[in-house]
Design a protein that fits this description.
This protein is α/β, with parallel strands linked by helices. It has a single domain, classed as Rossmann fold, CATH 3.40.50. It has six helices and nine strands. The strands form two sheets. It has a seven-stranded mixed beta sheet, sandwiched between helices. Strands 5-6 form a two-stranded antiparallel ribbon. A hairpin with a 2-residue loop joins strand 8 and strand 9. The protein is globular. The chain starts with a strand and ends with a helix.
Length: 232
């Protein structure tokens, strides 16, 4: 099985999601859209869509941001084509938002920024197919589901997990690890971190405490995606 992994910066790697896919025998082809985040309009054209699965990771950018207009349309088209022909798609945070937008939903500014560890809850009558967490959140935007999508979980602020056919979108970050978070925090300015109340050392300590459980939960999510969603 060959999977195209669309990342948006060097630091938006698939982390534990990628680790589990490889363990399950999936061959990953990682494509970085924006090699230099100081030049967000300068991008690497997407490769051909000859693959068996598509994974779209997080990003510093917003789906609706003017700075990424030169390439976000092509990415949404890729997601839409993949979904329509039945290729399994997994979207993570920005990737979940892009998936929702590509399939007819929308993305806007979240009424509340969620940064930290949150538990997710299914709607009444819906069985949650993965752990309730806690899962790591780091987002300022939120997605609104397209018609026909199934809401599987949310927080009090916004949707967190949805499925539409063989496509799944998350708002949380199942891929997070201390290593990956350290890279994110090195890239973040002191002014930004202060504006959202983040202290680097405290965030890393909290991720370290949750890392082992998150790895197990992430692996279970990937297994569900491969064994139930992709094979449906």
């Amino acid at each position: 099985m060959r999977a195209l992994v669309v990342t948006h910066e060097e630091t938006s790697r698939p982390g534990f999601v990628g680790d589990r896919l490889v363990e399950r025998g999936v061959e990953l082809h990682v494509h970085v859209m924006v090699p230099d985040t100081s030049r967000p309009a300068e991008f690497q054209p997407l490769p051909s869509d000859d693959f068996d699965a598509l994974v779209v990771t997080g990003s510093y950018f917003s789906v609706y941001e003017d700075a990424i207009k030169p390439w976000i349309g092509a990415e949404l088209d890729l997601i839409r084509r993949s979904h329509e022909r039945g290729t399994p798609v997994l979207g993570i945070c920005f990737g979940g938002q892009a998936l929702a937008a590509a399939l007819g939903g929308s993305v806007d500014l979240s009424p509340e920024t969620e940064i930290g560890w949150y538990r997710i809850s299914p709607p009444d009558g819906v069985e949650l197919p993965i752990s309730a967490g806690p899962w790591m959140e780091w987002h300022h935007d939120r997605f609104h589901l397209p018609d026909g999508a199934e809401m599987l979980a949310s927080t009090e602020t916004c949707p967190q997990l949805f499925r539409m056919g063989r496509s799944v979108g998350t708002q949380f970050h199942p891929e997070i690890s201390v290593e990956l978070a350290s890279e994110w925090l090195r890239e973040a300015s002191d002014d930004y971190l202060a504006s959202v109340g983040i202290v680097r050392e405290e965030v890393l300590a909290e991720i370290a405490r949750n890392e082992a459980a998150n790895r197990r939960n992430c692996f279970d999510l990937v297994d569900w995606f491969l064994d139930d969603v992709a094979k449906s």
